[in-house]
Amino acid sequence: MTGTENFQVIPVAEVNATIVDIIKFDLQTDDPDLVERYNEQMQTDLFPDAVILVVTKEELNNITSLKNIIDDVNNVLNWMKRESYDTEIPVICVLNKIDEYFDNQLPSSDTDVKKVEEYTRKALELVNKYLIIPSTKCIPVSTTKNYGINQLRLNINAVSPLNAQIIDKNLDYISQYRQSIANKIIAAFSTASAAVSLLPIADIIIINFFQEWMYRMLACFSVDPNRTPNSFKAVNRIHQGVSIAIRTGSLFIADIFQLTIVGYSIGSGICVFAGAMATTSLGWSCYFYFID
């Protein structure tokens, strides 16, 4: 809402935000007209990403005016927390009309940039003396010169509780999808390992070949470029050695069982199980090594 006592919707690309300008409005939480207007506005904005506190050089130099503005902001924050969300809405401080510090010009030199940093730091320290929910950011902008608008949009996205929920859900979906693909890869190579596990000696060479290609395929999930199939094999030598020993031992045990007709089926089952489980175990170890 503005000094005209009407809400003004300011669209910001890709942001779910309601920007409330309460300068000179003398907001009171028991004002029934305000409550009605606020409810009407919030019907389409179920959860604001942030509360934007806009201040200027003039207001920062007038402590009485600044405190009145921030008192209004605090009333909004308390009302929103109590009546609508029961949670703290992030506050972003905006130092508007930054060009006024540079004779109505945009900061252009390294010296100007350092001055901007100093101005925003002081502005943030000053408003946080009075805000009930401290702001963690102060963004310098100039709406007349289109300066800092993109930075403001990015910071709204960064603090947005809504975006955080979306990101969490997307990451959870990606994680589930990634694990599903990994499961299919590991299952395919485990089945292939089981199929060749009855070949004496040759199965060890062939299964090692299968496992090598499995490592390479699972490497596509690696979150660290330094984690490669070779690095996995280097840190898992014992696991791989045990896998080979189990498969070799299963061949000798299978040979003993295969001396009888009944034992042939048992021995074959042992070889198939050992070949499949060895590849499966190494496959999941490799997968979690890459995504950890």
From TrEMBL:
Gene3D superfamilies in the cross-refs: P-loop containing nucleotide triphosphate hydrolases
Keywords of the record: Membrane, Transmembrane, Transmembrane helix
Parts of the chain that traverse the membrane: 185-210, 272-291
Domain of life the protein comes from: Eukaryota
SUPFAM superfamilies reported in the protein's UniProt record: P-loop containing nucleoside triphosphate hydrolases
UniProt keyword Membrane, yes or no: yes
The name this protein goes by in its record: Uncharacterized protein
Origin organism lineage: Eukaryota, Metazoa, Spiralia, Gnathifera, Rotifera
